[in-house]
Design a protein that fits this description.
The relative contact order is 0.23. The protein has seven helices and seven strands, in the order H-E-H-E-H-H-E-H-E-E-E-H-H-E. The longest helix is centred in the first third of the chain and has 13 residues.
Length: 185
């Protein structure tokens, strides 16, 4: 399976090493945590990983955990049922996990996920099922989860701002994208 660059430009040895690992990781269904400084191309790398995976022809759903208001993040990720809260749609709404069913869900800036939602995310990752906000029906999921962050999650765990059990669930395979200063070529 050929790995597509998806716009990633570079010929440095460190970037070649990342692509070599990506070629081995792409065919798996494992959760991958991509780390690196802002502006290094983490989302491009994740898109390349999805494009080279067996799920390439399935949905790719990106979610920026830091860009969605905290009050809306739970319903955006997990969906909601009619009457779950004031202003909820009459028929409810599927969340990002459901939209990514059979494909890939990309959780960008996972380090910005509020502590209050981390337990719920952990449960969905472990059980491969969810219940919408305000719902009772269990919805089975077949989704690969890819994450990215510029933050040091180990440090956030030490500061008790990120759950250790969630960190280990997300960090099944990790890729560090080298900073641009290490890719001068």
């Amino acid at each position: 399976m050929e790995l597509k660059s998806n716009g990633i430009i570079g010929q440095s040895a460190s970037l070649a090493g990342v692509f070599k690992i990506l070629g081995k990781v792409a065919p798996t269904d494992s959760t991958v945590l991509v780390t690196g400084e802002s502006g290094t191309g983490k989302e491009l790398l994740v898109r390349a990983l999805h494009a080279a995976s067996p799920r390439a022809d399935r949905p790719f759903v990106p979610v920026n955990c830091g860009a969605i208001p905290r009050d809306l993040l739970e319903s955006e990720l997990f969906g909601y049922e009619e009457g779950a809260f004031t202003g909820a749609r009459r028929q409810g709404k599927a969340g990002m996990f459901e939209l990514a069913h059979t494909g890939t869900l990309f959780l960008d800036e996972i380090g910005d996920l509020p502590l209050t939602l981390q337990g719920r995310l952990l449960r969905v990752l472990q059980e491969r099922e969810l219940v919408r906000v305000g719902g009772t029906q269990v919805i089975p999921l077949d989704v690969r989860v890819l994450c990215a962050t510029h933050q040091d999650l180990r440090q956030l765990v030490a500061e008790e701002r990120f759950r250790a059990d969630l960190f280990y669930r997300l960090n099944v395979l990790s890729l560090r994208l080298p900073p641009l200063r290490e890719r001068l070529e």
